[in-house]
Give the backbone structure.
Amino acid sequence: MSDRNALFARRRRRTRHALRQASGGRPRLSVFRSGKHIYAQVIDDLKGATLASASSLDEGVKGRIKTGADKNAATEVGKLIAERAIAAGVKEVIFDRGGYMFHGRVAALANAAREGGLSF
């Protein structure tokens, strides 16, 4: 079990290193996916501050979804994070998928954030 966690941590580190090289000072849209929910944050690494956040646990999202662990929930969270990031004055971000594959819920969140107005 620890090998699986170590491999995930290596993938996440590798991804974050590549993001730092390519970011150009843009905030990053970070995604965390658990078994029951999905979370997203827009983080300014230069200031060390979270500019906007959204999750499938938010009241606005909770009423519209059946469960927090499917693509529909990820789409709703993507729309909400885009709305909140734009309200915070952020239009361009760099997408941080962490150690996850760009597939399924992670891709659904990213596509919904793009449709919501974020550019990455």
